[in-house]
């Protein structure tokens, strides 16, 4: 069991879409893990809601299966699961009608934190919000949680923000980007702003370039229909990669406080230069006719949707003038590896002359697998034969360094749901941030459509299309190898 976990306040959490895939894979197992960790108070209540008629008992059986399948091994025993299931209930509601709403209202308690998780398609947000008001469940400090995709473009994001704003204040709206809940992503802020070491050299004068890679081995699987309308740009870059870029590039906020942090992130997004077409490479996994290729899996033999994108991005401000950010993400690549690499410039003068090539310091922040950080430092290669220099890593794997605590490190969803209950919006996207991100992404996607751009095929299990390599070669640089997992076993 876990130490140092402070239970949150008593709460009523209603999960609309309570029998859906996200509830099954992430929300219910995540809540269970927090219960197991001792973070849910005795008075916590979780109510599943969806169209499907179901009894409390049936919903508990659904949750039990979800916990068995998705909560980590060793997390409690049957007794603990049963104690958690006691907190669960279920009400069938009709999002577009009046059925079930009075029953749902009757389950909620006064004077308790109240949160509504909209784990449903955005087309239902307005209906749900309207009925929460009509049936007087929407208290002034209740919270609503919404999932990505938050819109399909700037216009639809503005509409969604408008719909939510009719019913809720911005301080009540929690837009989830689960990357912000990842342990290492928050550590990025701790490392940058909790150490004197990095911040003085965190700028164009010392940083040659930054690489952000989110590589996946999975394909689109059963999500082809959704994904084919989105592509990597909308599915990953507009949100997850953009958030990583913001945290790496932003100015120090004056406080670790929701609006202070989000103001700084917004400034980064607004400082992004429009991307030139020759600074982006799109790819699609497999050859067009290949059975396990993208087109077959997406169910459209002529699909022009990208499953890979690599780009060179410029942040136009004083700190980053001249330091490119290279972003890439893709599916069915060589390995599952997400990392941010800050590649520093070489020393200005080599005292070792010709015999030693100048090396570079690289700070790598590994998101997954094996969350951790690594700093490449230059030393003398041991042994005789003059002064030859090599890079060796100073490696810190969090799991290793924090062996005891890491067993209880919450997963992204767990942390974010607890933040909703605590009323802390720091790790959630503000409406203007999401709109600014779309305003930058839209012209790129429109450009592809206008030009009839077709993504380059790339081999399954590769590093992506060769053109992505050229993107950096042209600048005299090189992508870090996706294969490398420089972690201790
Ligand atoms: C989701 C995307 O937001 O993030 C998926 O829709 C992607 O396409 C997933 O696979 C990646 O998340 P993680 O946490 O596994 O890196």
From TrEMBL:
The active site is at 240 (proton acceptor). SUPFAM superfamilies: Glyceraldehyde-3-phosphate dehydrogenase-like, C-terminal domain (SSF55347), NAD(P)-binding Rossmann-fold domains (SSF51735). Residues 14-187 form the Glucose-6-phosphate dehydrogenase NAD-binding domain. GO terms for molecular function: glucose-6-phosphate dehydrogenase activity; NADP binding. Pathway: Carbohydrate degradation; pentose phosphate pathway; D-ribulose 5-phosphate from D-glucose 6-phosphate (oxidative stage): step 1/3. It catalyses: D-glucose 6-phosphate + NADP(+) = 6-phospho-D-glucono-1,5-lactone + NADPH + H(+). GO terms for cellular component: cytosol. Keywords: Carbohydrate metabolism, Glucose metabolism, NADP, Oxidoreductase. InterPro entries: G6P_DH, G6P_DH_AS, G6P_DH_C, G6P_DH_NAD-bd, NAD(P)-bd_dom_sf. NADP(+) binds at residues 17-24, 51, 148. Substrate binds at residues 178, 182, 216, 235, 331. GO terms for biological process: glucose metabolic process; pentose-phosphate shunt, oxidative branch. Its EC number is 1.1.1.49. Residues 189-480 form the Glucose-6-phosphate dehydrogenase C-terminal domain. Belongs to the glucose-6-phosphate dehydrogenase family. Catalyzes the oxidation of glucose 6-phosphate to 6-phosphogluconolactone. This is Glucose-6-phosphate 1-dehydrogenase. It comes from Candidatus Rhodobacter oscarellae. The lineage of its organism: Bacteria, Pseudomonadati, Pseudomonadota, Alphaproteobacteria, Rhodobacterales.
């Amino acid at each position: 069991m876990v130490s140092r976990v402070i239970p949150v306040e008593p709460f009523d959490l209603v999960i609309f879409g309570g029998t859906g895939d996200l509830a099954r894979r992430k929300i219910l197992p995540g809540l269970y893990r927090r219960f197991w960790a001792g973070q849910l108070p005795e008075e916590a209540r979780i109510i599943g809601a969806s169209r499907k008629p179901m009894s409390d008992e049936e919903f508990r059986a659904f949750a039990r299966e979800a916990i068995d399948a998705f909560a980590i091994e060793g997390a409690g025993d049957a007794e603990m699961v049963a104690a958690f299931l006691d907190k669960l209930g279920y009400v069938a509601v009709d999002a577009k009608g009046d059925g079930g709403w009075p029953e749902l209202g009757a389950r909620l308690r006064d004077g308790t934190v109240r949160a509504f998780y909209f784990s449903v398609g955005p087309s239902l947000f307005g209906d749900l919000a309207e009925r929460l008001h009509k049936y007087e469940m929407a208290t002034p400090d209740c919270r609503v949680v919404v999932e990505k995709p938050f819109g399909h473009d700037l216009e639809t994001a503005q509409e969604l923000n408008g719909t939510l704003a009719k019913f809720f204040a911005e301080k009540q709206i929690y837009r989830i980007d689960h990357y912000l809940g990842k342990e290492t992503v928050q550590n990025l802020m701790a490392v940058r702003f909790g150490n004197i070491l990095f911040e003085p050299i965190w700028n164009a004068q010392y940083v040659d370039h930054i690489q952000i890679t989110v590589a996946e081995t999975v394909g689109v699987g059963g999500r082809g229909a959704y994904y084919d309308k989105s592509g990597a740009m909308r599915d990953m870059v507009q949100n997850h990669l953009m958030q990583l870029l913001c945290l790496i590039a932003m100015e120090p906020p004056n406080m670790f406080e929701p609006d202070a942090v989000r103001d700084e992130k917004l400034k980064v997004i607004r400082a992004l230069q429009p991307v030139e077409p020759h600074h982006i490479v799109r790819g699609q996994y497999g050859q067009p006719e290949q059975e396990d290729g993208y087109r077959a899996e997406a169910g459209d033999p002529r699909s022009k949707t990208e499953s890979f994108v690599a780009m060179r991005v410029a942040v136009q401000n004083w700190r980053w003038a001249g330091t490119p950010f290279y972003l890439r993400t893709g599916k069915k690549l060589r390995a599952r590896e997400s990392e941010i690499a800050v590649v520093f410039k070489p020393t200005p003068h080599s005292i070792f002359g010709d015999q030693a090539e100048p090396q570079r310091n690289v700070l790598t922040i590994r998101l997954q697998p094996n969350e951790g950080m690594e700093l490449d430092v230059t030393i003398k290669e041991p042994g005789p034969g003059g002064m030859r220099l090599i890079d060796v890593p100073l490696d810190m794997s969090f799991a290793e360094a924090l062996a005891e605590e890491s067993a209880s490190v919450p997963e992204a969803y767990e942390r974010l749901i607890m933040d909703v209950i605590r009323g802390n919006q720091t790790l959630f996207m503000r409406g203007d941030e999401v709109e600014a991100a779309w305003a930058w992404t839209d012209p790129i996607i429109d450009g592809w459509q206008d030009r009839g751009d077709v993504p380059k095929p790339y081999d399954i299990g590769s590093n992506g299309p060769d053109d992505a390599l050229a993107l950096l070669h042209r600048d005299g640089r090189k992508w870090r190898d996706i294969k490398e997992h420089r972690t201790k076993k």
